[in-house]
Amino acid sequence: MLSTPPAAALDLQEVESRIYGFKSFTKKMDDSVLQLNHTAMEFARKQVTGFRKEYQKVGQSLRGLSQAFELDQQAFSVGLNQAIAFTGDAYDAIGELFAEQPRQDLDPVMELLALYQGHLANFPDIIHVQKGALTKVKESRRHVEEGKMEAQKAEGIQARCNTVSFTTLAEIHHFHQVHVRDFKSQMQHFLQQQIIFFQKVTQKLEEALHKYDSV
């Protein structure tokens, strides 16, 4: 773990390799965050509008069937008619559960994704500064070999690059620690809320099912 700048110069090749790897990581993560955000937004929209509407259509159709059955005017069919009507109401309620659910699970996920889009947008500039520092070190070494620069000046450039590299690697290390913590917590919350949601749906269906026991 990085905590204080090392006394010796960092290995430039290793630093360059780690920076390149992190650049690839941030590009892939940014693309994935955008894709997941779009998918979550579309899924939430479908739950609020499409899913609710479809479940309500099923509920309305079931109540229509119940009303049709009532026309037989048979005493022994009353229980069935009531059970079917109750099932229709259950589907209405499930539709409302779908419409309300994104606030509990998808919205918090999208908020976290938006936060990380902001974080990721900062890294190209940080990486650019780091690359610039590495380039200056390479140039200074070449100039020393060609006799165009004193070794002491090149060492100063190396020392500044060392500081920049340490800071950059520390930021990368911190980012990885934080993103693991944040996404672990958010995914746990998401799945917990999904479980609660489907338990509510199951409860509605079980209540409807029990209405047929006495028919």
Structure characterization notes:
The chain has 215 residues and is mainly α. It has a single domain (12-210), classed as Substrate Binding Domain Of Dnak, Chain:A, Domain 2, CATH 1.20.1270. It is built from four helices and no strands. The longest helix is centred in the C-terminal third of the chain and has 60 residues, at 151-210. The N and C termini lie far apart (68 Å). The model has no long low-confidence stretch (mean pLDDT 91). InterPro entries: AH/BAR_dom_sf (IPR027267), Sorting_nexin_WASP-bd-dom (IPR019497). Residues 6-213 form the Sorting nexin protein WASP-binding domain.
Compute the CA-based radius of gyration.
Answer: 31 Å
At CATH level 2, the architecture is Up-down Bundle
User: Care to count the β-strands?
Assistant: 0
What would the principal axes of the Cα set say about the shape? rod-shaped
N-C termini distance: 68 Å
Could you describe the largest sheet, including whether it forms a barrel? Answer: none
CATH class: Mainly Alpha
- Compressed to H and E, one letter per element, the order equals HHHH
> Under CATH, the topology is which?
Substrate Binding Domain Of Dnak, Chain:A, Domain 2
Defining key terms:
mainly alpha, phosphatidylinositol binding, 215 residues, Sorting_nexin_WASP-bd-dom, Substrate Binding Domain Of Dnak, Chain:A, Domain 2, Sorting nexin-18, AH/BAR_dom_sf, rod-shaped
Secondary structure: elements and pairs:
Layout: H1 12-70, H2 78-100, H3 106-145, H4 151-210
Please outline what is shown here:
The protein contains four helices and no strands. The protein is an all-alpha fold and 215 residues long.
